[in-house]
Amino acid sequence: MAYDLVVIGSGPGGYVCAVKAAQLGLKVAVVEKRATYGGTCLNVGCIPSKALLHASEMYSHAAHGMEALGVEGLTPKLNLEKMMGHKDATVKSNVDGVAFLFKKNKIDGIQGTGRVLGAGKVAVTSDKGEEQVLETKAIVIATGSDVAGIPGVKVDIDEKVIVSSTGAIALDKVPESLIVVGGGVIGLELGSVWMRLGAKVTVVEYLDTILGGMDGEVSKQFQRMLAKQGMDIRVGAKVTAVEKSKDGAKVTFEPVKGGEATTIDADIVLVATGRRPYTDGLGLAEAGVALDNRGRVEIDGHFQTNVPGIYAIGDVVRGPMLAHKAEDEGVALAEILAGQAGHVNYDVIPGVVYTQPEVASVGKTEEELKAAGVAYKVGKFPFSANGRARAMLATDGFVKILADKETDRVLGGHIVGFGAGEMIHEIAVLMEFGGSSEDLGRTCHAHPTMSEAVKEAALGAFFKPIHM
Ligand code: FAD
């Protein structure tokens, strides 16, 4: 049977593209080599990590965070197996949800490894080795990403002692000590999970700051907060070796600026140095599909590769490796293939770190505005001056709004604080509509809410906050 669209990969990019295309009347098949749909995000990424972040936060809160509220005498007992069971059940309900959506939208889900034979043809090899060839008007490569190693260092990831994020969400006991190589989002989130459950966590980061690329003031303050929680963070440290030892593993690192090397031991080492686009075995070279110098599938402004009829979206192409970016590209591409005008606004893609407190950001950082020579103004408001935050003992953090100095148009928003990942969206919507800090500051916000700090920061950008 000929399809309008064959999608290779059922992660947030691929499955969302498939559903949207089917909703728009196209005949769609999705090829997935995993046993379940949903890609990295639903199986071993966003969803299981958030299940563990929530459960471990509840544990930690019960253990340390309730006495000041007058709730005493709690001594929670950890049942890690049950916690992992909650994570697995969460994954199952989400991946089953994708299977349901395929059925509902009459999408053919085909289990097997896809290979591009050229425009219009995809070969699928099942686990049993049987091959079939699908004919289609358009092919979408949505094969995502895989764990990247440490540049210049040979690391044997066995997912037991030296683990990637995939092993780190499935440990069968709480390690006494955990070294996280890489102070990015994934390392800090999973480091937080195990620290809350009792592990001594050391983070080794090459850059001078954790969360490289985030607003500098935000990452500095956030680093202090994590250190206060007990995370040992070593920045400006270049890892030169990760090796197994008698009782675990050891990591050797030296100051990036030069100096003596240090070796530390731990039960578990988590390698969280980023991800690489995944195109292994896809036959792209044979099909003449060009990659860029970082191994990503090269695409034009309409997600099309250099071979007409072959498109790519998500982690396998340029841009932030985020599930919602992949999803939005999936929707836009489906619209384009259905003859509509699909578009993604890459200037307004929020990023969230789901630690406690959360860190959320959208648009430009101060560093980016300075580098671009844009004249800007800053409005800031701390949660310590917000009534709801005081009531919840969630006063750590602040909101920062960056607006164009002349036009007052909001160019960026950054939040560190409880619930930051939800609050960031009002700034995102405002930016989508080209709104100003005055627009945000004059919008009535319910009292008492954490979101009032967003309004106050906006008031600060165009005039003065009231409560400070
Ligand atoms: P993927 O989700 O990687 O899906 C690609 C799919 O293609 C996979 O299922 C793979 O099996 C399949 N595939 C590959 N090659 C073939 C082939 N030849 N034939 C058939 N199938 C193939 N992002 C967020 O936005 N928020 C988060 O909180 C978040 N947390 C994360 C936590 C962790 C631990 C990790 C690892 C990632 C996290 N991410 C998060 C990133 C997010 O998972 C990715 O950005 C997202 O999954 C990318 O979607 P995708 O559709 O491009 O690819």
UniProtKB/TrEMBL annotation:
Domain Pyridine nucleotide-disulphide oxidoreductase dimerisation as annotated: residue spans: 349-458
Documented EC number(s): 1.8.1.4
Keywords assigned by UniProt, alphabetized: Disulfide bond, FAD, Flavoprotein, NAD, Nucleotide-binding, Oxidoreductase, Redox-active center
Signal peptide extent: none
GO CC, alphabetical: cytoplasm; transferase complex
Gene3D superfamilies: 3.30.390.30, FAD/NAD(P)-binding domain
GO BP terms: 2-oxoglutarate metabolic process; cellular respiration
Pfam families: Pyr_redox_2, Pyr_redox_dim
Domain FAD/NAD(P)-binding: 3-330
Cofactor requirement: FAD
Keyword hit for Nucleus: no
One Gene Ontology term of the molecular function aspect: flavin adenine dinucleotide binding
Residues at which FAD binds: K50, G114, T143, G144, S145, D315, M321, L322, A323, H324
Cystine crosslinks: C41-C46
Entry keyword annotation includes Nucleotide-binding: yes
Catalytic activity field: N(6)-[(R)-dihydrolipoyl]-L-lysyl-[protein] + NAD(+) = N(6)-[(R)-lipoyl]-L-lysyl-[protein] + NADH + H(+)
InterPro entries associated with the record: Class-I_Pyr_Nuc-Dis_Oxidored (IPR050151), FAD/NAD-bd_sf (IPR036188), FAD/NAD-binding_dom (IPR023753), FAD/NAD-linked_Rdtase_dimer_sf (IPR016156), Lipoamide_DH (IPR006258), Pyr_nuc-diS_OxRdtase (IPR001100), Pyr_nucl-diS_OxRdtase_dimer (IPR004099), Pyr_OxRdtase_I_AS (IPR012999)
Cofactor note: Binds 1 FAD per subunit.
UniProt-annotated binding residues for NAD(+): G182, G183, G184, V185, I186, G187, L188, E189, E205, G274
Top EC group: oxidoreductase
Tree of life domain: Bacteria
Residues of the active site: H447
Family: Belongs to the class-I pyridine nucleotide-disulfide oxidoreductase family.
NCBIfam families in the record: lipoamide_DH
Misc: The active site is a redox-active disulfide bond.
Record protein name field: Dihydrolipoyl dehydrogenase
UniProt source species: Rhizobium subbaraonis
